[in-house]
């Protein structure tokens, strides 16, 4: 079941947030599957948070950076992570109230 579905168009940049409630499993022990993508219209990632376990050197919850690095993040729930993501979008100059 989808619990969050938001798309923001900033012209040459966009933000897309998707989250689903899924059965708890090894892949999704929190029962949530999510992706929060902020990027350019040309398809380049500026910031992306997700909990895809397909990155062997990253924690379950992690952030993809513009330079290609992947950093672990603390997951205190979907709402706090969403607010962190919105703050980062704002810090990059796109106003998201």
Give a written overview of the molecule.
The protein starts with a strand and ends in a 6-residue tail after the last helix. It has one helix and six strands, in the order ββββββα. The mean pLDDT is 93. The chain is globular and about 40 Å long. The protein is mainly β and 97 residues long. It has one helix at 78-91; strands at 2-9, 13-21, 32-40, 45-50, 62-65, 70-72. It has a six-stranded antiparallel sheet with strand order 1-2-3-4-5-6, covered by helices on one side.
Question: How large is the radius of gyration?
Answer: 13 Å
**Spatial shape:** globular
Number of helices: 1
Portion in strands = 35-45%
Q: Helix coverage percent of residues?
A: 10-25%
Q: Main β-sheet: number of strands, strand sense, barrel status?
A: 6 strands, antiparallel
Could you give a quick summary of the protein structure above?
The protein is mainly beta and 97 residues long. The chain has one helix spanning 78-91, and strands at 2-9, 13-21, 32-40, 45-50, 62-65, 70-72. The longest helix has 14 residues, at 78-91.
Topology:
Layout: E1 2-9, E2 13-21, E3 32-40, E4 45-50, E5 62-65, E6 70-72, H1 78-91
Antiparallel strand pairs: 1-2, 2-3, 3-4, 4-5, 5-6
